[in-house]
């Protein structure tokens, strides 16, 4: 729509961050935590969060994966005690939706009965195939286990932010480079010892490197950082650390630090784990599935021999134990149950949050917008970039930067290029203008893409101004 780019009257940019007015919260009924839940904490079984469709619980099992029996029990509990909707988050957690206060005890009991033990304490994330993937540089799961023990034995226990995240990444096919973390350890390719790059506050590309250390020293390095965080205060995050003074406490960084930067494989489709084993990567459509569809799929997968299911990047479920000759049949069955099963499915490039109907903070129907994007903006979806559809500035579905982020506001949408949902937008569009803006962005790529160029490269070359101009002209 011509002239759809307008600065929304009640939207401001402060210090490069998009801010919407404070009274928005009251007007739109922003998510209110239950009394037991402190803002900034995670919605656990004991402290679920009130959302638009009831209480929400986020669950991270302490085991690398769940057996088919356990996942079936989880799905049955989600349907019995909630509205049956199950989401896989960007960090590979399960989210169960639509519970009521009186249903929480039953849900907790059923999860306990299934032998699913939620992880407690500091979240330490490792790639899903760590320990199984012959192409990884190091076994991150083993190092993470030693780190967890070291943290557990600290006395006194440091008081740390509830959302503090540590990533230990040994490389391999499915890495966690795109996820932001307060503290990262990444395996470094070295001809002698196994070394780990210690860095803070960011993704693999943006985190600040502090040191390169052998395993035990890397664990001590993380403990040093946790002590520094605790000294700042119980809400301190990696970005609050003083990188320069911490660097001085470690051996000088070597000039050339090579960590595994190979392009990660897609988590969707068949992922080979050496010559003899493989896993099946499936993405619930836009990261969400109903329990009854998951149960239908689990029946088929178990019959075919599935043993274990893990969560992974791209909001995926990774099925282990299936014989290779049945993979095609299982993929077809999974598609029938509501999964995205192709690595080249354009829908994989779209990351919508829960949106209206599920989240009281949402200003638009993100999943409807995702369908519109596939319909009118397919030129953007060539696998080279992600489009993050965020119902508000919180950015739950994709906390890291994306090439394009559409942020909902009371009066319209903010369009962010190469940033996160709270970054400074290049343009604002009004409520009725979203579908036409998506079409404009697709057309911009279609008309300007050079031979051999991807959509991402094209948009990067054109730059923010050209994108803003195109949106303004419609
Ligand atoms: S990002 Fe989406 S799911 Fe998260 S609070 Fe905002 S509207 Fe809700």
Keywords:
Sulfite Reductase Hemoprotein, domain 1; about 25% strand; binds iron/sulfur cluster; Sulfite Reductase Hemoprotein, domain 2; alpha+beta; about 475 residues; about 30% helix; single chain; 5-stranded antiparallel beta sheet; 6-stranded antiparallel beta sheet
CATH homologous group name of the largest domain: Sulfite Reductase Hemoprotein, domain 1
The DSSP helix count reads 11
- Low-confidence segments: 1-39
CATH architecture of the largest domain: 2-Layer Sandwich
The dominant shape is globular
Decide which structural class fits the backbone. alpha+beta
Care to count the β-strands? 23
The mean pLDDT is: 89
- Determine Rg (CA atoms, Å): 22 Å
Q: How would you characterize the largest beta sheet? A: 6 strands, antiparallel
> Which molecules other than protein and nucleic acid are bound?
iron/sulfur cluster
Write structural notes for this entry.
The protein has 474 residues and is α+β, with helices and mostly antiparallel strands. The protein has 3 domains: 5-30 and 347-473, Sulfite Reductase Hemoprotein, domain 1, CATH 3.30.413; 49-120 and 267-343, Alpha-Beta Complex (Sulfite Reductase Hemoprotein, domain 2); 129-247, Sulfite Reductase Hemoprotein, domain 1 (2-Layer Sandwich), CATH 3.30.413.10. 28% of the residues lie in helices and 24% in strands. It is built from 11 helices and 23 strands. Strands 5, 13, 14, 16, 17 and 18 form a 6-stranded antiparallel beta sheet that branches. It has a 5-stranded antiparallel beta sheet with strand order 3-4-7-6-15. The protein is globular, with a radius of gyration of 22 Å. It binds iron/sulfur cluster (SF4). Iron/sulfur cluster binds at residues 31, 353-354, 359, 361-362, 390-392, 394-396.
């Amino acid at each position: 729509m011509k002239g759809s780019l307008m600065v929304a009257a009640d939207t401001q940019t402060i210090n490069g961050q998009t801010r919407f007015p404070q009274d928005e919260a009251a007007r739109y009924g922003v998510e209110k935590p239950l009394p037991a839940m402190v803002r900034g904490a995670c919605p656990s079984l004991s402290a679920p969060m009130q959302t638009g469709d009831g209480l929400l619980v986020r669950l991270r099992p302490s085991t690398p994966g769940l057996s088919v029996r356990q996942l079936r029990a989880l799905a049955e509990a989600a349907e019995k005690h909630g509205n049956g909707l199950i989401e896989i988050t960007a960090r590979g957690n399960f989210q169960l939706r639509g519970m009521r206060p009186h249903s929480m005890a039953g849900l907790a009991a059923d999860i306990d009965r299934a032998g699913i033990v939620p992880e407690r304490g500091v979240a330490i994330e490792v790639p899903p195939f760590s320990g199984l993937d012959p192409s990884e540089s190091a076994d991150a799961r083993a190092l993470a286990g030693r780190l967890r023990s070291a943290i557990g034995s600290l006395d006194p226990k440091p008081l740390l932010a509830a959302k503090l995240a540590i990533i230990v990444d040994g490389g391999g096919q499915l890495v966690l480079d795109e996820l932001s973390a307060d503290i990262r350890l990444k395996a470094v390719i070295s001809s002698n010892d196994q070394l780990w790059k210690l860095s803070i506050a960011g993704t693999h590309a943006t985190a600040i490197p502090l040191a390169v250390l052998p395993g035990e020293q890397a664990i001590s390095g993380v403990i040093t950082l946790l002590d520094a965080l605790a000294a700042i205060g119980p809400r301190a995050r990696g970005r609050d650390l003083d990188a320069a003074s911490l660097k001085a406490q470690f051996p000088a960084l070597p000039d050339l630090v090579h960590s595994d930067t190979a392009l990660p494989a897609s988590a969707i489709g068949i992922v080979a784990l050496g010559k003899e084993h493989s896993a099946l990567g499936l993405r619930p459509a836009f990261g969400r599935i109903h329990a009854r569809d998951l149960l239908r799929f689990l029946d088929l997968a178990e019959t075919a021999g599935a043993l274990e299911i893990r969560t992974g990047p791209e909001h995926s479920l990774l099925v282990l134990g299936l014989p290779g000759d049945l993979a095609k049949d299982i993929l077809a069955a999974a598609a029938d149950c509501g999964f995205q099963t192709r690595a080249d499915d354009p829908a994989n490039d779209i990351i919508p949050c829960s949106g209206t109907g599920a989240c009281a903070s949402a200003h638009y129907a993100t999943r409807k917008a995702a369908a519109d994007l596939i319909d009118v903006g397919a030129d953007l979806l060539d696998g080279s970039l992600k489009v993050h559809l965020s119902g508000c500035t919180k950015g739950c579905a994709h906390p890291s930067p994306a090439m394009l982020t559409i942020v909902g506001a009371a009066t319209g949408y903010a369009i962010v290029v190469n940033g996160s949902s709270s970054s400074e937008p290049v343009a604002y569009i009004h409520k009725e203008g979203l579908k036409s803006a998506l079409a404009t962005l697709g057309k911009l790529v279609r008309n300007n893409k050079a031979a051999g160029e991807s959509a991402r490269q094209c948009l990067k070359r054109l730059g923010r101004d050209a994108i803003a101009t195109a949106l303004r002209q419609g």
